[in-house]
């Protein structure tokens, strides 16, 4: 990927909770977050899961109706779970892992501390997911979350060690990954605190090239 600096479910919906409750509704209506739980404005939810565990992010992949839950177990670290049957059963899949030798700006080893967001690609690229994390790594999966790899072009960007800083949490975090609806090969990444970076997918390799 080439990066550049920029100035600036259809059938099931999920919302995350910081009090350890995840619930969902098999419907086209939108779930909302209120007082630390997931619920539907229109009718009771169709299920609950991960009681007592902090859910940092939850999403349904509309391409496959697969549910994903990013879990923060505190002492036990970050976990990632997936359900292919609308929440009836869950399976743990490997959470992203930083490469050996990946370092923060003060030469501390980079380790996964928080899963900020998970964004599916459009249907033109089935299986691809992007995950934003703390301490500032963007990860990509091409097999529906079975494995993730670090987007090194962004991690190795010259601005990361010199200009990125934590905002709200101790280290920088990628909190948003947006796909351009006009050009699905172009993505924008929101970094706290480092503004917005944009990238273009290199079709030949499926990698990202920083363009701003």
Structure description:
With 212 residues, the protein is mostly beta strands. It has a single domain (2-210), classed as YVTN repeat-like/Quinoprotein amine dehydrogenase (Methylamine Dehydrogenase, Chain H). It is built from two helices and 18 strands. Strands 1, 15, 16, 17 and 18 form a five-stranded antiparallel β-sheet that branches. Strands 7-8-9-10 form a four-stranded antiparallel β-sheet, with no helix packed on it. A hairpin with a 2-residue loop joins β16 and β17 (195-202). Residues 5-21 and 27-43 have low confidence and may be disordered.
Tags for this entry?
5-stranded antiparallel sheet; 4-stranded antiparallel sheet; 212 residues; single chain; 43% strand; Methylamine Dehydrogenase, Chain H; mainly beta; 2 helices
Summarize this structure briefly.
4% of the residues lie in helices and 43% in strands.
List the helices and strands and how they pair.
Blueprint: E1 2-6, E2 13-15, E3 22-25, E4 31-34, E5 37-40, E6 47-49, E7 54-61, E8 66-72, E9 78-83, E10 91-93, E11 114-120, E12 129-134, E13 138-141, E14 149-150, H1 152-155, H2 159-163, E15 173-179, E16 186-192, E17 195-202, E18 207-210
Antiparallel strand pairs: 1-17, 2-3, 3-6, 4-5, 7-8, 8-9, 9-10, 11-12, 12-13, 13-14, 15-16, 16-17, 17-18
């Amino acid at each position: 990927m080439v990066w550049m600096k920029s100035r600036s479910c259809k059938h099931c919906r999920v919302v995350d909770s910081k009090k350890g409750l995840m619930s969902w509704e098999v419907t086209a209506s939108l779930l909302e977050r209120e007082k630390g739980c997931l619920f539907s404005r229109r009718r009771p939810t169709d299920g609950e899961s991960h009681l007592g565990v902090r859910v940092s992010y939850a999403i349904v992949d509309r391409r496959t109706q697969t549910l994903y839950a990013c879990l923060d177990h505190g002492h036990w670290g970050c976990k990632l779970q997936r359900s292919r049957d609308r929440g009836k059963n869950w399976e743990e899949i490997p959470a992203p892992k930083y490469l050996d030798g990946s370092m923060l700006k003060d030469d501390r080893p980079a380790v996964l501390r928080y899963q900020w967001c998970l964004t599916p690609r459009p249907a033109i690229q089935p299986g691809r997911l992007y995950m934003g994390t703390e301490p500032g790594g963007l990860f990509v999966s091409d097999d529906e979350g079975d494995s993730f790899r670090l987007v090194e072009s962004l991690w190795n960007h010259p601005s990361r060690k010199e200009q990125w800083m934590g905002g709200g949490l101790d280290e920088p975090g990628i909190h948003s990954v947006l796909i351009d609806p006009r050009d699905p090969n172009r993505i924008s990444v929101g970094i706290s605190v480092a503004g917005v970076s944009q990238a273009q997918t290199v079709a030949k390799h499926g990698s990202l090239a920083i363009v701003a």
